[in-house]
Structure to design on (515 residues):
């Protein structure tokens, strides 16, 4: 009976969600010509400003790389402090977890706005936002990987008189490393996609170019930028996937 | 007092006389219970003399592994006092406890090597207690530590596998590496928790012979748990049997003891 009631409640939630967002197939079909006109305006893509677009794309990638590398490095101590059995004290563990949750739950766009106010417009603000976002993402998954590490080697090193730091360095990190590298590569993919959006609020990168192109209805140039972003994200995802497969095997 | 204890009484004084010497390990009144479950150990007294080899036997759940862990506070006993190599470990600070642990090599049932690291790095880890983070990897270890680790590996016959990853070894090889890691501690005593239980009989006999031989050769105190009567009688000077968390027999190891020990092997 309880299971039936749960199913009914779940169904009611789905139906009310469709109503709440004004989901309408008719409206969508009515808007298709508009979409067609917009899509047609994008073609052919304009290569007039290809050079500044490519420089902005490089800046975007640099933001993603710098933000991910620093974020991953900072995530390690956060993960250790927030992992069960590794944290030095329950209060420290709670604080570290709360901070990592805060970094993760506040959207990167909000962090970007925060840092644009702090350090001004440009890629540095975007990079800081990516660092915070990466710590929020990697901090959690690194901690989980460390908690799942086989306890046998840890007990063996504890039994031979090793300090906690040595146990983490010699038994926990080697066990968690494949998962941590895979998470870091996911994080790089995520940062590459995010760094595009961050430009929309003035935090550097190709997003700023896209925003200007769309504001001035320069759709052919916007198309070039979108295609450039697509290629960059695709390359990063392919390379990251290739590295992950190599790590797993 | 149980029948088995009474039956062993004739043999036990002789054993104690023969092994009398400095005490390496002494435990009195050890008790342990996990949560609301039944008592795993109840009022256990145990004395092991320096250089003595003692086998702890008992059915599954008799408390052997817990007792062994309580002796190094890998599991905190609820009550009782433990003296290890002259130190009352219950009162020790974490630092002093680590110092005592460096003097006791512990070999686990499932070798507990770090799988992704090289065999040599795993053996170098044996020096973590005295050398700190310099012993975290064979590449960071000073040449003297590396040479010592290679010598330890040589003692277990695996020096040629030093650069191989630990997770590529067989069960028997892994357990030998775990023994080399314990030797790397330069221990005064060796503990082993069913060190050959996960190996096939031939590999188990081989590893057990190597293990007890190395301990005897170096004059180390040896305390091991086992489920194998032949190992208990063949590699120990004394056999202690646990039943339901209490010591039920404590006698010198001799073939004549075999019938009394049968009931401890389920």
């Amino acid at each position: 009976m309880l299971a039936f009631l749960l199913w009914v409640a779940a169904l009611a939630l789905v139906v009310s969600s469709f109503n709440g967002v004004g989901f309408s197939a008719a409206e969508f079909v009515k808007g298709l010509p508009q979409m067609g006109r917009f899509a047609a305006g994008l073609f052919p893509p304009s290569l007039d400003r290809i050079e500044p677009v490519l420089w902005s794309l490089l800046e975007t990638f640099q933001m993603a790389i710098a933000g991910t590398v620093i974020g991953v490095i900072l995530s390690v101590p956060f993960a250790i402090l927030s992992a069960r059995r590794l944290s030095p004290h329950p209060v420290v563990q709670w604080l570290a977890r709360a901070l990592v949750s805060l970094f993760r739950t506040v959207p990167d766009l909000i962090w970007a706005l925060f840092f644009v106010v702090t350090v001004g417009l440009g890629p540095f603000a975007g990079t800081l936002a990516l660092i915070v976002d990466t710590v929020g993402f990697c901090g959690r998954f690194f901690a989980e990987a460390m908690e799942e590490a086989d306890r046998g080697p840890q007990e063996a090193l504890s039994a031979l008189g090793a300090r906690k730091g040595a146990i983490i360095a010699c038994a926990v990190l080697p066990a968690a490393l494949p998962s941590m590298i895979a998470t870091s590569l996911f994080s790089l993919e995520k940062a590459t996609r995010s760094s595009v959006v961050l430009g929309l609020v003035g935090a550097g990168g190709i997003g700023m170019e896209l925003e200007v192109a769309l504001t001035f209805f320069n759709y052919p140039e916007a198309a070039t930028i979108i295609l450039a972003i697509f290629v960059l994200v695709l390359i990063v995802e392919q390379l990251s996937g290739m590295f992950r497969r190599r790590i797993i095997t | 007092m149980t029948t088995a204890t009474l039956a062993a009484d004739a043999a036990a004084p002789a054993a104690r006389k023969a092994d009398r010497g400095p005490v390496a390990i002494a435990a009195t009144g050890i008790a342990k219970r996990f949560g609301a479950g039944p008592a795993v150990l109840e009022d256990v007294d145990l004395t092991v003399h320096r250089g003595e080899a003692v086998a702890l036997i008992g059915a599954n759940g008799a408390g052997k592994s817990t007792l062994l862990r309580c002796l190094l506070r890998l599991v905190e006993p609820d009550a009782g006092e433990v003296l290890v190599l002259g130190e009352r470990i219950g009162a020790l600070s974490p630092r002093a406890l680590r110092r005592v642990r460096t003097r006791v090599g512990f070999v686990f049932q499932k070798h507990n090597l770090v799988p992704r690291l090289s065999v040599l790095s795993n053996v170098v880890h044996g020096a973590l207690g005295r050398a700190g983070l310099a012993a975290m990897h064979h590449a960071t270890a000073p040449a003297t530590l590396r040479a010592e680790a290679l010598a330890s590996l040589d003692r277990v016959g695996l020096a040629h596998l030093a650069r191989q990853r630990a997770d590529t070894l067989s069960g028997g090889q892994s357990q030998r590496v775990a023994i080399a890691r314990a030797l790397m501690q330069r221990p005064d005593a060796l503990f082993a928790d069913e060190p050959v239980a996960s190996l096939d009989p031939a590999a188990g006999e081989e590893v057990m012979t190597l293990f007890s031989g190395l301990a005897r050769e170096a004059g180390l105190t040896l305390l091991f748990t086992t489920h194998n009567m032949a190992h208990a009688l063949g590699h120990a000077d004394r056999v202690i049997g646990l039943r339901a968390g209490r010591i039920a027999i404590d006698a010198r190891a001799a073939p004549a003891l075999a019938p009394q020990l049968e009931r401890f092997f389920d």
Q: What stands out?
A: The domain at 50-248 of chain A is CATH 1.10.3720.10 (MetI-like fold). The mean pLDDT of chain A is 92. DSSP finds ten helices and no strands in chain A. Chain A has one domain: 50-248.
